[in-house]
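Troubleshooting log. The previous structure file for this entry was overwritten by mistake, so regenerating from the original sequence record. Sequence copied from the archived sheet and checked twice against the printout by T.R.
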Amino acid sequence: ISMKKTYLLGASFILLSACNSNPVDLNSLNQSYYCEPSRLVKANTLRLINQARSVGRYCGEKYYVATTPVRWSQQLTLAAKRHSNDMAEHNFFSHKGSDGNRVSVRATRAGYHWRNIAENIHAGSDTTTKAVTDLIGSPGHCENIMDPNYQEMGAACSRRSATTYVTYYTQTFGRRR
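Regenerated output below.
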């Protein structure tokens, strides 16, 4: 056998060996995703959201000037946690809960008396930082983040391994009456 044929046979063997008969299940790759402890979700979310609000930016075609920081709200966090838990438990991804309710009802049920209310949701992220960064990069979600009408926020993450996205992250923004 010539040197060229030996080389080609060796290269073919290496390539065929790389084609494992047990292909990687791409859906299982996100099984390593987890939700950080709630204190880190709070710290990381608040830091990143307030950094974003501190500078002017475009959210799609709309420009927002820098605005005031938001404060953390336990009531909005409760609304966010309940929605993240609902999405994880029932394996869905929507602003509409499994009971048909939206963020306005969730916030009210959590005891938040709101004048303005909004919600961002994200799924399938391995960290809070990634989820927040993705939401800032999405025009509609960015608008919620940058809107000066919102003075408070809460956020939460829930994880369930046997679901489509594994991690479900919710941000709830509000302004009290």
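The two ends are 85 Å apart (CA to CA). Archived copy saved in two places this time.
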